[in-house]
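re: the backbone from monday

yeah here it is again, tokenized this time
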């Protein structure tokens, strides 16, 4: 399994399993299936309402905690003290001694104080790495100028239609790893029927999903595709077992639309 080394030396799988919008009653089984087919990185969040089920699946999997990489994200925090309490609440729900990666879910509240609390929990060993999510260029640079621990990861909408080149350039200069949420664009903008992707998929004997994911992972972008179908889970996990040619990468780059497909960030 391909991995990336974060700026503090922690190793993170390049392909993880996302749990956004998976109902709590389905999460334990879906995460169990994902771990069974080979995933070792699981992404959840406080606002998903399924941290407890992610923790249950991990404990029941028989896979050592040290082999799993668990990401969660803070929600509705406002400052230093409530962030510390929020971190402890996630640890309790996950029933884990530490979180591998904790992110600020979005740039709201006093992000400088929220992040300062995360830095404290990081130094205490409750968090192996800390980062942010949905911080675009201006907010990212503002945080960088006020923090002591450079964010290890910035998780942002990134897919073939929104490639985030400018943001990724800034992150690269400051040693923050770029991570994609919705790497398959949630099926929007006709991604499954896109002629460019279909043609490249045919040339490689792969699916459109695998081509879209490989376009990102080949650039070192972490991806967390979500599926409740075990066959699709397996398919997504093998999206780094082949390479796209430089010409194919250039053609896919032309699919950029320059805007969000979701209207959030």
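seq for it, each position gets an aa:
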């Amino acid at each position: 399994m391909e991995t990336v080394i974060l700026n503090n030396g922690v190793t993170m799988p390049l392909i993880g399993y996302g749990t956004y919008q998976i109902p709590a009653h389905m999460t334990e089984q879906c995460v169990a299936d994902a771990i069974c087919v080979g995933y070792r990185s699981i992404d959840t969040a406080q606002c998903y309402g399924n941290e407890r089920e992610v923790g249950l699946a991990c404990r029941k999997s028989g896979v050592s905690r040290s082999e799993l990489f668990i990401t969660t994200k803070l929600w509705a925090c406002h400052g230093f003290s409530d962030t510390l309490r929020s971190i402890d609440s996630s640890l309790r729900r996950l029933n884990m001694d530490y979180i591998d990666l904790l992110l600020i879910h979005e740039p709201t509240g006093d992000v400088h104080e929220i992040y300062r609390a995360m830095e404290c929990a990081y130094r205490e060993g409750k968090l192996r790495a800390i980062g942010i999510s949905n911080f675009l260029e201006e907010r990212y640079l503002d945080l960088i100028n006020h923090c002591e621990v450079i964010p290890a990861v910035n998780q942002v909408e990134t897919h073939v239609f929104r490639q985030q080149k400018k943001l990724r350039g800034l992150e690269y200069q400051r040693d923050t790893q770029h991570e994609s949420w919705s790497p398959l664009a949630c099926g929007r903008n006709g991604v499954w029927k896109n002629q460019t992707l279909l043609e490249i998929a045919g040339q490689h004997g792969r699916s459109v999903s695998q081509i879209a994911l490989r376009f990102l992972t080949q650039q070192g972008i972490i991806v967390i595709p979500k599926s409740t179908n075990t066959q699709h889970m397996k398919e997504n996990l093998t999206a780094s077992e082949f390479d796209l040619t430089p010409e194919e990468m250039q053609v896919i780059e032309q699919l950029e639309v320059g805007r969000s497909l979701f209207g959030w960030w």
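The mean pLDDT is 97. The domain at 3-187+221-227 is CATH 3.20.20.100 (TIM Barrel).
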